[in-house]
Amino acid sequence: MSGLDSAVDGDDAAAGDAAARVEEAETRAEDLRNARERLSAVESEIESIGEAAVVDAADAYRKAAQLLDRYEGSATGTGDFQAYVEFQDTFLGLVEDRDDTPASDAFSAAGERLDQRRLSESDFDGAREDLEPAAAYVDLLDRREDAAEAVAKAKRDARLCRRALDEEIDERAAWLAVGEADLDAPVAELTDPIEAYNDAVVEEFDEFYASASIAAVVDFLDRTEAFPLVEFRSPPRDLREFAAESPDADEPIPTLLEYADYTGSKLDHYAEDPGLLQTTVAVHRTYLERLSGEPLTVSLPPPPREELRFRARELVSLLGRFADEETVARVRTVRDLTRRDDYRTLRRATRAHQELDADELAAVQSGTAAAELERLRGARDRLVTALEGRGGDA
Prior knowledge:
Strand content: under 5%
InterPro entries: DUF7118
Number of domains: 2
Order of helices and strands: HHHHHHHHHHHHHHHHH
């Protein structure tokens, strides 16, 4: 694939991602508007009747339907006379004198149908049909509840989409900020000395760790605490005590870790204080095994000029404890990079090459990233407007 083809593909990928995010935002905003419209319509319908009246009719219908279901078997035919009396008293008391209740004719018709000396299952079925107009008020309240839940869900979805948009916007803004660097700057003049130093210091620390006594390594780690830009994890207190007091502290860490795996009888032949070794070295195995020269390295992209200058000064003071002159010279070379007039330019260019992949760089260089950033910001503004609409709380 040619460089031009790669750039075009990168633009297409960036545009596709942004277009999908914009489309989702528009969908979420439209879903929220539609859900609010449905809720508004059903609320207006309830308001035109009266909230109390709708609730009264729905409540009366639910109770009447429950009574029909409960007594149909016992109050019909030649069944339980006591059940028949209870049903008549309760049901007729519920449906009578409901002139002020919506669907009052439905309640009245059901009452007249069941005000008989003897009831059949067909009478109960007929009463259910009579009450159907009142069921509409139950449905009205159910529709309002469903609409309110739909609004709540649409809000949640819109908020999640807004967060995703914010992340996308921040990412593309970062692309542009990084991509403003001079991508043709000779970054190797900055990165090569840093990588050479990093490789050297890691190798030398590994040798120091493998061959020096645990006392020497712990002493070095203690010394780093006076240098805030070199962030080794402090040795645990009991490990410090072991390194300072144990007769086995002149052994290298890998050897002590190997000893810690021995059985008691075997360890007696190798360690002068087997019990202390097992209760200290073995307990801190993870800490000891994770020690590396990484805290002594310089990051890529490197830190700002002054921070790197101070870090290099600390490193020079520390490296004499185990590193040779060549490695110390390398860190001095890294320190001297901060004196370059173009350090900031090289650092920004290094950051761009380190943090952006080929597609992202292509999107920045072609202007696609800037255009898509504006589209994403516009979509977010419209989504926020939808969230801040009637009944919304962004």
